[in-house]
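Summary of Year 1 activities. Much of the first year was spent building the evaluation harness for sequence design. The harness presents a backbone, in tokenized form, and records the residue chosen at every position. We chose the following record to illustrate the format because it has been used consistently in internal testing since the harness was completed.
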């Protein structure tokens, strides 16, 4: 591999953070396996009900004093967190790579993207997040933004540092105490992240970390004292999380899966399209909700498709693309490629049984794969595969391509590669997705433009980042006041 990754040896203990103390959960122990080489790099004791209740008690005790601090005081701690994360960037990146299988470059990029959200949180001290105006003679109305109290976030394996940073900095800066449940596949990163907040001076109990799996998530959703829960993961789980949390009167925002479509027009810039589409479905080994899943090739695009195929065949595992998260996920992807062939599609690039990077032969590796001549109803064209697999559907017209995109149950992202402004505007207008790209394969917005999809890609209202998330992590109190008696009368008198 181009960058040698420091894989933990001996295995780390993945513990809960309760107050200022790191301690093992009281549930069953499970091993944490690196997808890079198949070695055990951590041991996780899952949290049981008593651990969850303890975390809620500690957070509830810490929340009032933290909420009473000014936004500026809370931001001073967040500034220190930012400094520590930059200082420890390489250490965190190696842990992220070790447990998620990412390349070091991808791990670094994820951390830096998370820091961008933290920087948005820092801007809150300079924004008028309330608002006051005179609504009648001598009568004023104002908004006051107040924290919810104790809130929680459940994060996925694919971005162990970035996705938590979508949630924690903003929720904390608004004055909440936060309980974080990392993925049970990638819990190692939470130790260095938690230590960063403690070192920065965050009061003990304002951030708690609970390790565990499904049972821990359910316990958080059921626990009294937690007002809101944010979740990022698969659609099936997101739907369940939303239903369970809402039934317990919690505010829930659950981001689910995706089946992102890229429309490729014949007039697209060849180099831009080839590089953008390749990066979209191979970046993070396709294990991200923004990855290109389906390429809708309109008209004569063979030259561009050939360029994608040729470059896909040359991607170097380890340096150019990371590993698949688990053996089970690898087997599922291999089965999906076999099914596409049996359905009648053509494997233009078959990534099965690749040569693993030297020294990482025990890992879970799949090279980029490209399924061509698929039909809209094929399994590979409709189900989220979550791997480095691009499914190509040939279309005669833009209208046909848009109809396929609009028929998807998901609505996370869609992109178009074209040189026509008219075509770009039509796709932006008609695509059924929360995020749309023009000549961009991964249309991830940057704060204050919020991240999020629609339909089966999101359950709940609001956004997880940007201005839209402020209403999720806080309440607005409206205050109307009058200090001087007026001689006139109206409905407010």
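For this record, the design step produced the sequence shown next.
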């Amino acid at each position: 591999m181009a960058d040698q990754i420091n894989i933990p040896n001996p295995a780390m203990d993945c513990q809960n953070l309760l107050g200022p103390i790191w301690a093992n959960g009281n549930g069953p122990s499970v091993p944490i396996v690196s997808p890079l080489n198949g070695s055990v790099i951590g041991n996780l004791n899952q949290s049981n009900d008593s651990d969850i209740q303890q975390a809620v008690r500690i957070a509830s005790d810490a929340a009032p004093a933290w909420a009473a601090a000014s936004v500026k005081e809370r931001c001073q701690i967040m500034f220190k967190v930012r400094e520590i994360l930059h200082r420890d960037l390489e250490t965190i990146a190696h842990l992220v790579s070790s447990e998620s299988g990412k390349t070091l470059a991808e791990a670094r990029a994820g951390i830096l993207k998370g820091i961008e959200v933290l920087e948005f949180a820092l801007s809150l001290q300079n924004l008028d997040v309330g608002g006051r105006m005179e609504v009648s003679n001598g009568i004023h109305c104002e908004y006051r933004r107040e924290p919810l109290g104790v809130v929680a976030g459940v994060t996925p394996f694919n971005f162990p540092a970035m996705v938590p940073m979508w949630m924690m900095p903003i929720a904390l800066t608004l004055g909440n105490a936060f309980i974080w449940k990392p993925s049970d596949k990638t819990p190692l990163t939470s130790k260095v992240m938690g230590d960063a907040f403690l070192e920065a001076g965050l009061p003990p109990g304002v951030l708690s970390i609970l390790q565990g799996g499904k049972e821990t998530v359910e316990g958080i959703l059921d626990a009294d004292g937690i007002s809101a829960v944010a979740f990022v993961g698969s659609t099936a789980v997101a739907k369940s999380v939303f239903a369970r949390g809402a039934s317990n009167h919690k505010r829930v925002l659950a981001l689910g899966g995706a089946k992102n479509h890229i429309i490729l027009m014949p007039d697209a810039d060849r180099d831009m399209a080839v590089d953008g589409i390749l990066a979209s479905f191979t970046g993070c080994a396709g294990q991200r909700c923004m990855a290109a899943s389906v390429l809708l090739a309109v008209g004569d695009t063979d030259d561009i498709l050939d360029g994608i195929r040729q470059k896909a065949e040359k991607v170097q595992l380890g340096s150019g693309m990371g590993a698949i998260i688990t053996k089970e996920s690898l087997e599922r992807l291999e089965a999906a490629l076999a099914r596409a062939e049996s359905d009648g599609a053509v494997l233009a690039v078959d990534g099965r049984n690749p040569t693993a990077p030297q020294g990482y032969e025990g890992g879970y590796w799949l090279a980029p794969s490209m399924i061509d001549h698929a039909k809209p109803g094929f399994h590979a064209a409709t189900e989220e595969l979550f791997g480095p697999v691009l499914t190509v559907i040939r279309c005669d017209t833009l209208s046909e391509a848009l109809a396929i995109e609009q028929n998807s149950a998901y609505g996370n992202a869609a992109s178009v590669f074209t040189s026509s402004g008219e075509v770009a505007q039509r796709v932006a207008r008609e695509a059924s997705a929360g995020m749309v790209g023009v000549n961009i394969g991964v249309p991830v917005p940057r704060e204050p433009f919020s991240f999020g999809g629609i339909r089966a890609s999101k359950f709940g209202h609001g956004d997880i980042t940007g201005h839209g998330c402020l209403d999720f992590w806080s309440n607005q109190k409206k205050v109307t006041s009058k200090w001087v008696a007026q001689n006139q009368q109206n409905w407010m008198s």
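The chain is about 35% helix and 20% strand. Quantitative recovery figures across the full test set are reported in Table 2.
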